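Entry for the shared binder. Reason: the reviewer on the internal report wants the predicted structure included alongside the sequence.
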Amino acid sequence: MLEQMIMILRLQRKERFGVIHAHGFTSGLAALPCKYIYGVPVVITTHGTELLWPRRLWWKDPLELKLTLVFERFVLHHCDVVIAQSVGVQRYMMRIYGDDLEGKIRIVHTGVDHQKFLLPPKRNGPHQILFVGALSEIKGVSCLLKAFSAVHDEIPEAQLALVGSGPRAQEYKKFVKDMNLDSSVHFYGPIRDDARLLKLYQDSDIVVLPSNVGGPVSCTVLEGLSCGKAVISTDLPGGLHDVLADGSGILVRPEDDANLALELKKLLTDQTYLDTLETKARRTVEEHYTLDSMIDKLTSLYKELAS
């Protein structure tokens, strides 16, 4: 944080920029000296908080979280504008950090490059379910593996592709082996090649993110919708609910592998239902979540603050 603070002050003396947009509380705190020394407005986008997580998933002990909350409130109440990616994100921020934050919150929806994530329809190949994210219980990987095991019992040709890495990867691989699913569950690790990732999206029928934590809008969910795929996620406070609750995707309860399995089986056995969700998915992104619309809103905000 101290390094960021010094870097920002040096850059300001050199570049004389008109707005600082920080992502996260540490970067926001590092930007505040520039605000008070040079009068530069500070915008901060937050990316969730551990206070929304189930207690068993907390990384920090309760005392540390209390101290963190004091720190986060200080940063948010001293910046000029707080970006919330959806109404749900705005609600939980006010609940956690105080109603007096309402006056400085602006809603700017997360955007996805809808031209890049525009794919031709899947033509053939086995049914495939795609997960993209950290291999951890924060993202609900155990729930997904249990649900897929039930799906595989009835639809043995179904495949599950997991993209990402995490501290429990070996544990998940052991579970797959113990369940005799080695030939049906594929661990791809982190993928940084866009072409490979897009090919996996194209070959998939469903994108699933059974997260156990609430928070901002997930890029995986938006990418899946933009690719015209049926998307399933969990009904939690924040952006996931806001994006999918209107019928553009499916929401299930966290850690409810039985219900998740039912939804997966329904999609894989009812082509009309799958086609309907695929059409809604792409339309939702085009109408609300394009990268261009996000850039336009941010540009307008920057001009307002810098004037």
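Summary line for the report: The radius of gyration is 21 Å.
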